[in-house]
Amino acid sequence: MSIAEAEETARGNELVDQLRTWLEENWDPDLTVAEWWGRLGLAGWSAPMLPTDSYGRGLTRRDSMRVGQIIAEFGGLGAPGGLGLGLAAPTIATHGTRQQIDTYVRDIVTGQKAWCQLFSEPGAGSDLAGLTSRAVRDGDVWIINGQKVWTSGGQHADLGMLLARTNPDAPKHQGITWFAFDMHQPGVEIRPLRQMTGAAGFNEVFFTDATVDDSARIGDLNNGWAVAQTTLHHERSGMGAGGGGRGGGAEAAAMRRMAIPGTVAGHLTRRVGEFVGGRTRPSRPRPAEPARPAVGRRTSPAQDYIDLARKLGKDTDPVIRQGLARLHTLRELARMNTERHRAVVAKGGDIPGIPNFSKLLMADNVRLTRDLGMQIVGMSGTLYAYDEEGRAQVASQVGPEVMSVAGQALGAQALPIFGGTDQIQRNIIGERILGLPKDPGDLANLPFSQIPKNA
């Protein structure tokens, strides 16, 4: 073992011991969800990647993932999921004022408020800078009119990350502002969009003379595109690292019987033990443990599908074996990309475009997982149900693993689209990373109000 590996192992073991000690002292299944998340968040364990002055611990993505793993192994309820923790909190920690961090980030890490992302519009998806939702200033208040679409978890959200056009006479990337928007007000209509998986995690949101205070503006006026790039960076980084970016949404959490943050779902007042099987606080200190490796990974990052193939007697099929090898390779590459970026950032550097590369790789990973899973389970993968009762009935016949494969296959089409399509990622890499020429007729410097319709 090298000196660097030994140091990393020592740091990892120290983190494990510190967190386990804290869990033994603080976990109590009779607490309410709000009380437990309050303890977890204010101790910095909900969002350990955040800076220490923003309710985090300044840990790397890898160590932050270990924190969630340790909490799960201990039997405690993990951090409040959703877009607040993954996207809004790091954005506000980067661009917000001290007061905004204490107002918004604190409520995110303690699960008090749930967030959604009010970015995409019917005419501004891949070309997000073409958004037309307007914010018109009236003193210290902005009047909001317009429409958003594909709003994940909007039906459970207390607040939204709103991008609105505040200066239509500026070039399209320069007249946008980022707001922390209150979803519980007149003039906000949320319409669920049911997907082919049976879930309704996405929504349309309509604004009719809704309002937002100027104090809820994150970053400078008309500089919302730069703030949004921070949000999108964390979204793509999360997807590329296997977190899904939008993973942890309320719909997915409900299907996994997990606690949903915020005031809408009604989980904050429930007993936390309901969500974790009722583990009690350990009655005596844990015995000393021998030295352990920094990361306890499984034999293969594709172990779940290797095990499924073995269970169904498909592990000797040469085509499936080749698919499993490719899945192992892609997932390992995704992990190594994350590790490589972490090492470079730790030395003060960066790898331009790594979130875009990582998201493209994860999209390939998701498509391969879909195709390979259906090859393994065969015709049983066509059996699916669109409500919880129906899924339970199907799972009792074909097994929960087969149901999981079928659900993943139906949902696999989403990741290559949301968070910026594969085509947009390639454009960004080509133009901004490789320096290739842009498409002819670039309209980026033309005032937005003068851009031809549908251009």
Overall outline = globular
- The CA-CA distance between the termini, in Å, is 57 Å
> In CATH's first tier, which class of the largest domain applies?
Mainly Alpha
Q: Give the quaternary arrangement of the chains.
A: single chain
Low-confidence stretches: 243-256, 278-297
Could you outline the blueprint of secondary structure elements for this entry?
Layout: H1 3-26, H2 33-42, H3 61-74, H4 83-95, H5 98-109, E1 115-118, E2 134-138, E3 141-148, E4 159-165, E5 176-182, E6 188-193, E7 202-213, E8 217-218, H6 224-240, H7 250-255, H8 303-311, H9 318-346, H10 354-377, H11 388-398, H12 400-411, H13 422-433
Parallel strand pairs: 1-4
Antiparallel strand pairs: 2-3, 3-7, 4-5, 5-8, 6-7
